[in-house]
Amino acid sequence: MTDQKPIPRAARYPGYDVLRKRRTPSWDETTRRVVDARLAVRREPTFLDEAAWRTLDALCRRVVPQPADRPPVPVAALVDARLQRDQGDGYRDARLPPTRVAWQRGLAALDAEAQARYNVLFHQLDCGEQDALITKMQKGELIDGAWRDLPPQLFFADRVLHDICGAYYSHPASWSEIGFGGPASPRGYVRLVPGRRDPWEAVEASPGGEDEARKENERVR
């Protein structure tokens, strides 16, 4: 037994910034272009209208709350940019309409549910009210006619969670937070046995070892 407290997730990789890899052999030019495009995504809607954008932004904030000690990942902007590109997954549940239609209809239906229950739009609800509606969506308990043939529970599982969490963890700020070094091409990995770390990978701090991990993580690789 130990009286040491576990390290919070946000502090597990102190000092680690995956963008230090940008000009190292860890990333090739293709990776750099992809990362740069994600960093340069516009922070305003390019596909959704203003009402849908506000609802999406509020939804993203509840699904992936972010730490206050770093600039937030622009999750709504990343989802909207994906819709603008009309980028699919290569597969789709036959019960769902195409991705663009599903998002437009689902966001409008969330606003309709909020108006029916609280007489305001979804983004105007407080956090508890938003969470209550999200929970009902997850359970398939939303029934407003605005959903039409879009099953709320399926929209939550296959679009809300899939697209919002996927957008969040596609961003370098999230990679730094979880100690992920981005694509392993062209460098790859060498030490493939449990408990061993390649020198260009992030160091996870142990209780009492935060300063040592920070020094290692702040080195450019």
What does this structure look like?
This protein is an all-alpha fold and 221 residues long. The protein has one domain. The longest helix is centred in the middle third of the chain and has 20 residues. The N terminus is likely disordered.
Provide keyphrases for this structure.
single chain, 221 residues, Gluconate_2DH_su3, Gluconate 2-dehydrogenase
Number of helices: 8
Helix content: 40-55%
Q: How many domains?
A: 1
The ordered string of helix (H) and strand (E) elements is HHHHHHHH
- How far apart the termini lie comes to 36 Å
Shape: elongated
- The whole-number mean of residue pLDDT values reads 92
Pfam family, one: Gluconate_2-dh3
Organism: Paraburkholderia hospita
Protein name: Gluconate 2-dehydrogenase
Which helices and strands appear, and what pairs or packs with what?
Blueprint: H1 29-39, H2 50-63, H3 75-84, H4 99-118, H5 127-139, H6 152-168, H7 172-178, H8 210-217
